Structure prediction request, 201 residues.
Amino acid sequence: MKRIGVLVSGRGSNFEALAESVASGRIPNSEIGIVISNRDGAPGIQRAEARGIKTRVIPSKGLEREIYDRQVAAVLNESKVDLICLAGYMRLLSPFFVAAFPNRILNIHPSLLPSFPGLESQRQALEYGVKFAGCTVHFVDENLDAGPIVLQAEVPVLDQDTEATLSEKILKEEHRIYSEAVKIVLEGKFKIEGRRVLRTN
Prediction:
C-alpha cells in the first residue's frame, strides 16, 4: 500500500479529487496518509477531517523557509509517505525539502508550463491572448513551477472566456490529470531523461 502526503494552503479541491480517486480505486493500492496545511482554518483540512484522514496544521507565519520545511518533512517521514502531492500549497519549497524527497514531490499548476508560472496563471493567459491554456503536473525542484513535466492537458480559450470561466475549465482537467500522474508515479511506470519524463511499461 503506497502512502500519499498532501500539502494544502486553501480549499483543497485537488486534494478532494485525489481522495476520490484513491477511494474509487482509480489510484490503486494507495491511501492518503496525512494532509498538512501551513494555514489555520484551511478548508482543505476540514475536507480531509470529514473523510477521516489524519491532518496536521503547522503554521508557517514568521518562520524561515528551511526551518519550516524541516518541521513538515519530519511529519511526512513520521507518516512514512511514498509521494508528496502539493494541492494549492502556496509556498516555495526549500532546497533542503526538495533534496529530502527526490522525484517524490508532485505539483499541479494551472497553465501549460513553461508558460505563465507563478500566481494568477489564468489571468496571465487571457491577457497574453493565447488560444489554448491548460494545466501541468510536474515534479518539484527548488525553482518555481520548473521541474520535469509528467502530464499536461489543454483547454481552448474562447473569446467570451473570463478568468472565472477559464479557471473552471482548467480545474476540471487538473482533477483528471493529477490522479493519472499520481498513478503513473506510484506504479513507477516512468523514467526521467534530462527534463523529459518518459512512460515505461
